[in-house]
Amino acid sequence: MADEIRGEAHGTAPVPLSVLDLVTVGAGRTATDALRTSVGISRLAESRGYHRYWVAEHHSMPGVASSSPAVILAHLAARTDRIRLGSGGVMLPNHAPLVIAEQFGTLEAMAPGRIDLGLGRAPGTDGATAAALRRTDLPQALRAGGTPSHPGADDFPQQLAELTRFLDDDFPDGHPYRRIHAVPGPIQATSPGGVQSPHRPPVWLLGSSGFSARLAGTLGLPFAFAHHFSAQNTVPALDLYRESFRPSAVLDAPYALIGVAALATDEEREARRQVLAAALSMVRLRTGRPGLVPTPEEAEAYEFSPMEREFVASWNANVVHGTPDEVRAGLDGLQKRTGADELMITSNAHGGDIRLRSYELIADAYGLPRS
Questions:
Q1: Where are the alpha helices (DSSP H) in 233-340?
Q2: For 207, how many CA atoms within 13 A lie in the half-sphere containing its CB?
Q3: Backbone φ/ψ region at 217: left (φ over 0), alpha (ψ -120 to 50), beta
Q4: pLDDT one-digit tens code per residue, 233-282
Q5: Cα–Cα dist 149/306, whole Å
Q6: What distance in Å separates the CA atoms of residue 274 and residue 86, rounded to the nearest whole number?
Q7: What is the pLDDT of residues 164-215, one digit of tens each?
């Protein structure tokens, strides 16, 4: 399975380059437009040697149309041929492990040997939306005016173990789920006349702090860190992952990728404009006013408060942006500082054409092949 995890660097890139897609929706655009952009980016990524393409799970955010990663991945699988596709990630506390095993078993059957299953322990949304996802009895707590808890996140190791058992179809004798099978899955190979694919989606753990880093290391799993929104924790988390790592049947050595916000444009000024618009979208999200990604013109006309300006400066300090050469230099420096084994780039902007162009310019900057 290690061969399905480790990527290959192309051109002059120091490590494999990949794509993280939030399926962002800009003002004046529709979710249909955003999904068409995702198809375009995935096909570009495949033709230019990006290693994998992941879709992130988010909920109740008008500017992010990636609430159903498995559905989007099925759509992309039908329109690509080689690139690895996966979740970055599925938020496991939102779902029954059996459902995830079934969904990703189905994706694996659609695109054999191309599917990754990245898992996160956060809900990917706020507490009220988490309640609407029916993870626990949170609706009663909310109606009573109480503070909702999120036991699903606390139970993450147990949920992960259950999901892994379903994927491998190896619950022990006497377990209440011993006769329950995720289909498509290994049970089909043991049925009379059964033939089953030799592939099983590799499980990745995602994180923005030390919890999943330590768990991934202990279990010998690959690890993906969200540098794009938790940059201050990147190096400590990767150090913890490597220190905690124990060889497993999956990996004999650590393998860590980091998510990186990066936007390349033909002119530096345009990069600054697009990044400001994306930052305004984050300001609104963090202050309880989520919406579509504003246009650069709206962002330039917006009157930021001193506190908002401070947030924007801090946020954009971790967005690698500018001309292709500037972005390449920034990505190279980040890889050297962190020792990441792979860089997963998320290019957020108002327009899909800008995002598509960014991935093309980054590929050109590293001399990635064309096919």
A1: 234-244, 268-286, 296-301, 306-316, 324-338
A2: 26
A3: alpha
A4: 999 999 999 999 999 999 999 999 999 999 999 999 999 999 999 999 99
A5: 33
A6: 27
A7: 999 999 999 999 999 999 999 999 888 787 777 767 899 999 999 999 999 9
Instruction: Determine the Cα–Cα distance for residues 311 and 86; give it in Å rounded to an integer.
Output: 31
| Position 328, amino acid | R
Q: Read out DSSP for 215-233?
A: HHHHHT--EEE-TTT-GGG
Q: Are 155 and 243 in contact (CB under 8 A)?
A: no
Q: Whole-model pTM?
A: 0.93
Please give the Cα distance from 245 to 255 (Å, whole number): 10
Q: Report the C-alpha gap between 21 and 37 in whole angstroms.
A: 10
| Residue whose structure tokens are 């009573």 | 144
Residue given tokens 């192309």 in the structure block: 10
- Decide: helix, strand or coil at residue 117: strand
Strand extents, DSSP E, the chain: 17-21, 52-55, 84-91, 115-120, 203-207, 223-225, 256-264, 319-322, 342-346
Tell me the C-alpha to C-alpha distance, in Å, between residue 109 and each of 98, 105, 169, 276.
Answer: 16, 6, 16, 41
Residues 335, 180: Cα–Cα separation, whole Å: 43
Residue 108 DSSP label:
H
Helix pair 324-338, 234-244: axis angle to 10 deg: 40
- Measured CA to CA, the distance from residue 100 to residue 199 in angstroms comes to 16
